[in-house]
Specification:
This protein is mainly beta. Helix content is 10%, strand content 45%. It has 3 domains: 7-83, no CATH class; 91-230, Sandwich (Immunoglobulin-like); 233-367, Macroglobulin (MG2) domain (Immunoglobulin-like), CATH 2.60.40.1930. Strands 11, 12, 13, 14, 16 and 19 form a 6-stranded antiparallel sheet that branches.
Length: 367
């Protein structure tokens, strides 16, 4: 059990220029103080003249000449543009935003994060920001009194352009409670967050912070992300490893890129496959043929190990769907694959145009 549950509330209140009323059933003194401050205060504001909206924490401090005055002020602010900042910042976002300013980044929570490129368009590329947290590394608190457990994971991701300016802020909070009998199942799962966005051509970085609230730990990672201008000819999405597949998925949106033959793809950013009996290696990608070209799109796949080609072949592509895309799942047995590092190279061709994508997979021996 956590000790001081009011600690985060007090930090939030004082950090934003207020104070916490707690640990009392007598509210008269506290409300009298509130009334006095509401009716006798001065408000001061200023323009900080921000030159770079990099999302960093800018600390503030206010001093006054008179000794008998009490100053309530925010401890700082985050350098975010107005359209990214939003009307409010949730309490769980504050420690995560602060962690981006830490040197070095904290690494106390294990997770994976990446931007997955999909269909190019006139305004940029449709992409999915994905964060994957193995729950085996998250702390679960057991409550014996009612035979339950709880956990809580929060995240914030900042998409920054080549100048370090924040162009998008994404966040999510996942408190979880369950019956104690289901705890082994909860620990064996993964928390997967996916958010679709449109990104203009350019070079970007994705900074992601994840917090394990029960353990009071944070991890931060940074990844590069390049979006090329749209060009004529065939295009390819990022190649992802498939963790699971749900056929005949209900309520599947047409714009959801993670779908295949009416089913829902569950991707994973972890590229490790165990060569146990019955093990399969499944990769998901989407081909985008150019409708202005008469030639059909083709895709060849190569498996490389140590720089040497150990397997290759041409894939039989179906026709494009109503949105002009060809989702494809390549599956092969991993049961007899030797343990090691593999590079999977996809080459799509249509007429004189081509596109390439590469994925890296580790095959490990099951202990």
């Amino acid at each position: 059990m956590r000790g001081n549950v009011q600690g985060p509330l007090q930090e939030l209140a004082e950090g934003t220029g207020g104070f916490l009323i707690g640990d009392t059933n007598d509210l008269r003194t506290a409300l009298r103080k509130v009334n006095e401050e509401v009716n006798s205060y001065y408000e001061v504001f200023y323009n900080p003249g921000i030159q770079s909206y990099d999302g960093s924490l800018r600390k503030t401090h206010v001093d006054v000449a008179r000794k008998d005055m009490v100053v309530h002020t925010r401890s700082g602010y985050f350098a975010l543009p107005m359209d990214v900042r939003g009307p409010i910042m949730m309490p769980y976002e504050l420690p995560l935003m602060k962690s981006f300013s830490a040197t070095p980044f904290p690494k106390d929570v294990e997770f994976r994060a990446s931007a997955i490129r999909f269909q190019p368009g006139a305004d940029g590329i449709n992409a999915t920001l994905m964060v994957e947290v193995p729950m085996s590394g998250v702390q679960f608190t057991e409550v014996k009194e009612n035979q339950s457990f709880r956990s809580r994971v929060s995240l914030v991701s900042l998409l920054k352009d080549a100048n370090g300016e924040v162009v998008k802020k994404l966040s999510y909070d996942l408190p979880r409670n369950g019956q104690l009998a289901l705890l082994p199942q909860a620990r064996a799962g993964n928390f997967i967050y996916k958010e679709q966005l449109t990104v203009a051509p350019g070079r970007y970085t994705v900074e992601t912070a994840v917090m394990d609230h029960e353990a009071n730990k944070i991890g931060v990672k940074k990844a590069a992300f390049v979006v090329l201008p749209k060009r004529a000819g065939v295009n390819l999405s990022t190649v992802t490893v498939v963790r699971g597949y749900q056929p005949n998925a209900k309520g599947l949106e047409a714009a959801d890129p993670f779908q295949f033959q009416g089913g829902k793809i569950t991707p994973t950013l972890g590229g490790t496959i165990y060569n146990a009996p019955g093990a399969m290696l499944s990769l998901f990608f989407v081909v985008y043929p150019d409708p202005a070209m008469a030639d059909k799109a083709t895709v060849t796949m190569q498996f490389l190990s140590g720089g040497m080609v150990v397997g290759q072949g041409e894939l039989q592509l179906p026709a494009a769907d109503a949105l002009g895309r060809i989702p494809y799942v390549m599956s092969s047995s991993a049961e007899t694959m030797p343990a090691g590092e593999y590079q999977v190279k996809l080459t799509a061709k249509q007429g004189a145009t081509s596109a390439e994508e590469t994925a890296f997979v580790t095959v490990a021996q099951k202990k």
